[in-house]
Every structure is written in C-alpha cells, then in structure tokens.
Design goal:
The chain is mainly α. The protein is built from 14 helices and no strands. Helix 1 packs parallel to helix 5, helix 1 runs antiparallel to helix 9 and helix 12 packs across helix 13.
C-alpha cells in the first residue's frame, strides 16, 4: 500500500509543479509580451527552455530550506503529510490560476505542509523559527525564513524597480524612439536570467518534497544525493507547465497594473531577475509572480503613481493573508481523510 502512496506523492508533486509552471512561470514573460519585445509563443518557448536548464543544473539550497520546514519522524505517516500538503497546494493553485489571481504557489505549498504536519503530529512538528529569531539567531530557519523571504522579496523588487526607473528616466530623458529597439532586444537576456532563476527556485521545492518522500518510504537513506531523474523530471514538468501558460495572469501582470513601455519592462525584468537570483543563492523560496508584480508596481509608481492600478497590489496583500491559512486548513482536512482511508 505504501508503494502506492509514494507513487501518489510523486504524481501529485508533478501535477503541482505543472500548475506552478502555469501560475508562476507566466509572470516571467508577461512584461516582455506586453511591451512587444516578443510574441507570446516566442516568449513562452524561450522561458520554458531556459527554465528547464535552471531546474536541472541548479543547486540544492532551496530544497534544503523546504526539507527543514518539518521536524517529524521518518515514517510512512510522513508520506500522508506530504500528500495532503501537496494536494491542498495544488487545489489552491488551480483555483487562483482559473480566476487569474496572481497568487503564490510557494505560499500554498508552505501552508499545505504546515497544515498536514500539524494535523499529524501537532504544532511541534513544524519548525517555526520564532524562538531562534527571538534569541537573536543570525540565520533564519523554518517558517520564519520562508515567511520573511516571501514578504521581503516583492518589497525588494518594488524598491529596486522604483530606484532603477528613476535612474533610467533621467538617463533616457532626451532619447528618441530608437532606444526602444535595443531595450526590447536586451529583454531576451534579462528574461532568460529570470526564467533560469525561476526554474532553479521553484523546481528545487519539489525536489525537496520528493526527496523527503523517498526517505520516508525507505528508497533513500538520506535526503542528500537526489537521483538525477528527480531533477530532470521536475525540469521537464515545469517546461510543459510554462508552455501551457497562465494567460489570464499574463494579462493581469502585463496590462492590468500599469501600461508598460519597453523601458518599464526592461526595468521589471532586470529587478525581478536580480531578486530571484539572490533568493535562490541564499536558499530562500520565493514567488516569482509576486516579485514581478512588485517590480511592475515599482516601475509604474516611479513613472506616474496615479496611473498604477493599486487594486492589484491590494489583491496581492489579501492573497498573502489568505493563502497560507486556507491551504493549511485544506491540508489538515485532506490528511484526516487519507488517515481514515489507510487504516
């Protein structure tokens, strides 16, 4: 029976990664499509290909952060926790993707894992990190690290984009329309950097989950030395998820926040790529959608804050507050159901 549960965990992890590709990866190409730097097909194929490379050849810092979120016994029940958490996160991803809401797959995954572990073992099964933070520990861990990264990263993206937009506006204040051509061309490189970072950051989350599942089922003796097929499979799943695309989310990011010109899109791609790369380097799981949203708002606010649709920012704040608890409650319910089915 537990072999079947392991297979279900891996399957649901792949489906979640597919929805992640449809949800978050659409943010990678939204701005360059909106400003005319590439057609939707060109942009999606480019982002999917570079994201695949990032998923396969990235390190394991983000995966270790996800693994460190839980402090539970290595047993078959851990498989149920992972399955419940992934199922809840996947359902939330599908809901927000269908509604065109720029939500965070990472928020939903964290909420799902916390809810499943809490239902199985109690609150002590979650590495909250609050005590370490209170004691002045220099390194954040557990939920504290993830929540901090999820909050700080879009704010950092906003700040960097705001500053860069002010600088670029001054630098190009006498420029004519000819400057749009090199700005559009440069976005292929910038979107590639962002796509690579997205592939590396988001695929690692599922690599960590599958590593835990293999450990709980006895297939692996540790979470180190992840089999190559796991990374390759995660990369390919994200590739196809990106190809399917979250077109409604692309519309929200590309035209629903601010009317983007090539200079704004260049700024957004640069700021978002730098933020995602930094987060991946330090092992912080982040939301590409929220970072790109922050950079678009930042660029727009620096140019003409009256033209920014601040309602999208409000929706993001609501999503921050709702996603984790909603996913946690859903995961707790799914875990109880799975526990009853496997008696």
């Amino acid at each position: 029976m537990w072999e079947l549960v392991l297979a279900l965990v891996v399957l649901v992890a792949f489906v979640f990664l597919l929805t992640n590709g449809m949800n978050d990866a659409s943010a990678v190409v939204a701005t360059m499509i909106a400003c005319g730097a590439a057609t939707p097909l060109q942009a999606v194929l480019w982002a999917a290909s570079v994201g695949l490379v990032g998923a396969i050849f990235s390190g394991a810092a983000v995966a270790q952060t996800i693994i460190g979120l839980l402090d539970v016994p290595v047993s078959h029940q851990l498989l149920l926790v992972l399955l419940a958490g992934l199922t809840a996160a996947m359902l939330w991803n599908l809901f927000t993707w269908k509604m065109g809401i720029p939500s965070s797959s990472t928020h939903s995954l964290v909420g799902g894992l916390v809810g499943g572990a809490w239902a199985a073992y109690g609150a002590s099964a979650v590495v909250w990190g609050w005590n370490e933070l209170y004691m002045g520990n220099a390194e954040l861990v557990g939920v504290a690290k993830i929540v901090a990264s999820l909050i700080i990263s879009p704010l950092l993206g906003f700040l960097v984009a705001f500053i860069v937009q002010v600088i670029l506006s001054l630098a190009f204040r006498r420029a004519t329309f000819w400057v749009n051509k090199p700005l559009k061309r440069s976005q292929w490189l910038l979107s590639g950097i962002l796509a690579y970072g997205h592939g590396a950051n988001d695929a690692q989350k599922m690599v960590g989950i599958i590593s835990l599942a293999l450990l709980a089922s006895g297939v692996q003796s540790s979470v180190e030395g992840v089999p190559a097929w796991v990374k390759i499979a995660c990369g390919l799943i994200m590739f196809f998820g990106t190809l399917f695309g979250g077109w409604s989310i692309m519309k929200t990011l590309g035209t629903g926040i601010f009317t983007l010109r090539p200079l704004h899109s260049f700024n957004s791609q640069f700021s978002a790529g730098a933020s995602v790369a930094l987060a991946t380097f330090v092992g912080a799981p982040v939301s590409t959608t929220h970072i790109v949203s922050g950079t678009v708002i930042g660029a727009g606010a620096a140019d003409n804050y009256r033209m920014v649709n601040w309602e999208v920012g409000k929706h993001m704040l609501v999503a921050w507050c709702v996603t984790i608890p909603a996913s946690a409650l859903c995961a707790a319910g799914v875990f109880r159901l799975l526990q009853w089915l496997t008696r």
